[in-house]
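Supplementary Text 2. Reproducibility record for the structural model of the 50-residue chain.

All settings were left at their defaults, and a single model was retained for analysis rather than an ensemble. We include the record here because the model underlies the residue-level annotations in Supplementary Table 4.
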Amino acid sequence: MFPVTARYIDGQYIKGGQPVRIADPKLIQELKKNAKKSTCCIEGGKICRN
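Retained model, structure tokens:
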């Protein structure tokens, strides 16, 4: 979906020397849904609005 580089991973998702994890199943489901919708719009060349 977006470029994955050390800049985005190193530091951004580390807190107190430990990786930050999302444990809430509802939040994970919502993030996956939004990522899938965005990916479909990008691949289909469409502009999506909520």
